[in-house]
Amino acid sequence: MRVRWVFGAALALGLLGGSYGAHGTPRSGPLTGLDTRPAALTAAGELDRATADLYRLYALMAADRLPRELRAESPEGTAAKIGLPLASGPAGHRCGTPILRAVRARLDELPAELRAEAEELLAPPRPAAARSAGQVGGKDFSPVLLNWVVTENFSIQWGPDLTNEDGSLPVRDLDANGIPDVVERWAELFEASYRTVAEVLKPGVPDTVPEGTALASHRVPVYIANSSPDQLFENIDPTSGIYAFTVSSPIPYIVVNNDLRFVPPNDEGPTAEDRIRGAMKITAAHEFFHVIHFLYEPSVWNVIEDDWWLETSATWMEDEVFGGVNDYHQYYPGWTFFVEAGLPVPFGDDHYVTRAYGGAIFAKYLSEHVAGRRMMGELWDLIRPAPAPGRRILQALDVWAASRGFSDLEEMFLGFTAANAVMDYEEGGAYGAVPIRKDSLTADSTTDLLPPVFPPQPQRIPAPSYLGATYLLETGGGGPGVQVALSGAPAERWGLSLVLAHPEGYSLALGASAPDGETSIAVTSLVDFDRVYAIPSYLTPPVDPAASVSYATTATAVAAGDPVPPGGVGALSLTPAVGGFDASWSPPGDPDAAGHVVRWKLENEGTFLGSRTFVAPVTAAEVRGLDVGTYDVDVFAYDRTGNRGPSPAVLPQVVVSEAGREAAIPPADEIILGAGQTVPTSGGGGGGGGCFLTSLGP
Q1: pLDDT tens digits, one per residue of 306-342
Q2: FRET label pair with 468: which of 87, 453, 604, 679, CA 20 to 30 Å apart?
Q3: Which has the closest alpha carbon to 187: 156, 217, 218, 210?
Q4: Claim: this prediction has a pTM higher than 0.85
Q5: Which helix (H) or strand (E) holds 226?
Q6: How far apart are CA 179 and CA 172, in angstroms?
Q7: Are strands 2-8 and 134-136 parallel, antiparallel or unpaired?
């Protein structure tokens, strides 16, 4: 049997960063996500790119300035116009941060009259009246809106038109302490986020998160949107579908949407109130991590090309802080469907849409299969400007991969594509499945470059773009061995992953790559496996993005050899952790292991509850998401021809005594250090009465 797969590789990546041509005409493709309203006109040539940028700001902050045909009268109307489904499916924007950053990065390219209007919308907050900076508990804060409370690390500020988190009136104050309940809730959630983010980045030393920055002595301002009619900066169009945004001023500040009726379902609970409270949780975690991003961002960072990591890592952090909400699940179907597009590395302008949030699955891979949650702090330490000028995200990922034993980012990426084939993640069952572009490795197919289509069609095989992959599947198994070969243009670097899925639920992941596009993987026997995934991955940006080159992959049956399995793992150590356990081991020495599988089951049970596959050189695991109980743990190696090594004669055990938990949310009366307010005797926030309070004192 000899099989040939041919697929086009015309990789129209676009111009790096995107820019304006003569007279403001766009040089790159139409915008997506929140950009969809102006995108239709841009694509038709009726709207130049500069005006489209300004319209994106309108759509976020000042919808009444949009042309009437581009306005939406409700969140439901916006969903139809900007791709934000409210009930299910992949969503587009939910964070306005990258929109503001991208427009600010291109201000110099805007015509003078448009730039002036953009600068008005981007202007930092100004006090409504003469206000002086105050200090409570040793940290400064600068009141801008008339009403405020201060906590250990934040100042929460709002105006006279405050509503409840569902946009309703009158504002509730159930504990009758003079502070609106919604303000107390935001304060509690931001403080919980601060504590957990600090622990993730710098375990054991949370006070070092803002070291060397203005936040060492200043609170983070959080402004509640649309509560002050004389403040443009804190407007969020209620039809935009935006949860919040964060601005990288000298003191970074956050603006949160206080009308969250539009948010889609999440796992917080079945009611509308649950859904909104869940959205408030992940907003606090996501936006506060943006504040941390701005403390680490180096001068070499390119906003247009690198900001995808802001959204990817902030979405990952949501689940670290509030693991039960799982709002991020909604973004994975859109990401997994277009896996050929690779990581959300922007070669063009569509990097702050669904794929940037869905890209959190890549961060999940790094934390669940390579280095645990500590990877996030390690990566941002590589990005940050001190002591060197800093690194851009792909550079940092490349250096970090080498620090973990991989040759480079591209080699580490092959394990990521393998994990996605079988969704080998803690919550992988909720992530959806990557589309199989070819469901038989024994059928010939030839195709030119094809755009992705919906629903997936196996006969269409889009070529992957940089750091992307195409998934091919053979079912049945139970046969002799196979050799899969990949060949391509000598100047291009491709990789190949092979995943052997076992009926018991675990899988073996094999990977190979070569700078000349020629590589192969041979498996001596498929008797134990019922599915085989072959995953060609494109690892190098092409010299000519417009070039169209065909690449071929062949699969040839080979006779089964005498299996010489690797030996058992050595020095296995198990340590209980909250909601799971940590494991470390040493690989067998001869032959070198291609990877290891960790499986676990409750003691005295015959069926394993879960497994995870770790490709070499990884020899440690953090397994979480387990219930309280005593677990038998099996760790075995496999080699580069698919032979698995022995399990321990007696499976070691680990006791999980504490289930996984979300960040502890401190009560408001423990964290609110002071408050002040001057409001009119009528209006939304005043509830028709007097002031909520005069002061809680310093």
Answers
A1: 899 999 999 999 999 999 999 999 888 878 887 888 8
A2: 87
A3: 156
A4: yes
A5: none
A6: 9
A7: unpaired
